[in-house]
Amino acid sequence: MATLSHSRIIPCRRRITGRCLSIISAAFLCLLVAQVTPAQRPIITALSPSRQLSFTPAQVWDDYSLQGSTNLQGPWQACPPFVDQPTTGSVMTIPAPDLGTAFQFFRIAENVTNSYAFPPYTNVPEGFSHQTYLTNPVLTIRPDWDPGVTRNLTNGYLVYREGPYHPPQITDDQINATMTRINGDLKYIIETLGLRNHPSTQSPYFNFINYYLLGSGLPGDSTPTNNTPETGYQGWRFYNGVWWPVVEMTYQDFLPPDDYHRWAITHEFVHVLQAGYGVFGDSVAGWFNEAHNNYVMARLREGVAARKELGWLDAYGPLGSYLPIECYAMLADGSASGPGANYSNVNGNFGGYCYCSLFPLFLSQRTKMFFNNALWEQATPTESVLQTLTRLLGADQARQVLIEYGARNAILDYLDYAPSLTTILRQQWSNSSGNWFYTATTNQNGWLAPADPMRLPRHTGRNNIPITLSPGASRILIEFAPDATGSKGSVSDLRAQIAFRDSGGQTVFSRPVAGGTCALNLTSKPSNGVVILVIANVKLNGYFSPAAYGWDPSETFGYRVRILEGGTPAATSSQYF
Asked: DSSP label at 88?
């Protein structure tokens, strides 16, 4: 018997992974290995006495075919039923060909240039509170140390509290209408979206959630009672050794709401729910408190108003694609902040980078609907979001999250939310704070390198390089050469992948590669003639000079690419979506 490993024939009694392959009959059974991309090959590892052929594919979810020929040089024909079958495991086993067949030679052909389907995520935990949000709960008004409170109004789980000054612009009916609406929102968020009510409302406390009126003369409140400027936020009160979350707002938030105020007020009460988990504090995950909150608001809007709409700040995740997912803001010089709240020295609208809800939206669409809840429920107090995610999904699936998130971001693939995101991104495309959705490159001896080193991918960041297809191109081949280390010396871990939407609106992806050839057969074509090469940083840990939260916001990771076949660089000012 003979087998072909890589590009040479191994004699019949050569040991393969410790097993001596013997001649089954006088006829030779020749097993060969073939693949489109020479740098990666499926490897035949064993043929058992029961005639089970085992091989190791180059990559799980490639398509493979068993092929036969009467001649070592071909032509090769498919051997049903093993034709264009997915490789579903790291080791595949199929019945060996019958020796009575007309073919004398066989091979496993693995096609790595056809479009790639991201494998489904497995063992994904979900979280759900299963709590009931009561209409008339029996609760106590606390903390009871507020000496300046002169009036309380209770409604559901909320208590409105004001000082000696009552603004004439609002009535009790308006205050109650606002609290009734918020209670309805919280009921949906807790009973349908599965978040927990704050523990202070449950046994053994049974407290109301305090809703303070700023500008009413409460002690410690510097908000003026006359010409009160509008503001509102989730704050804290310290009582009996415990910090209790509260909501504080000015009178404007009790007026009949426009569409912004309709959702923005509930947003602050979602922060109260988040605070009840005791995890993802500001120092490690301040950004996620805002991103996840806006995600919850999108799902709320979908559920109670049948509107699948995102907010205008959702555009700034894609527009600042090189930034870490886990950073709070882009700083004025284009660098990244850490994960905690940062309101100073920011780059305009990118100061609201953390309000982009796309990452939790992606997790709900591609992992499990209630996986975000599991992150809150199962995190430890010192973990970052990515650390919790990696612990729950495993490192390989965590890297897939970063790869897939980058690829789907590049073509705005957010299912029913894609039309809203497309509209918002077009509206913000020419904003005064900048646009780094696509990455400009310069030609350096035939290789393309990013033109602006400041905008190289940082922790969990991406670059998107648009490529115009050549007329009549049937495939595109791109050589990807990542730098060995980042700008601070950390070992690099980048991936390259081609992505586009075809003329029928279907998403098409190539297999992601860590280096070498990124290839894709163009069995369908992009409607605009442009594909996107996505470079994603999937480095989970191991930074040379990490901050206390586990990564370095200032380290960048370089690379070069070379288009071998099928296209040329496209302009980065256009919109290819």
From this structure: -
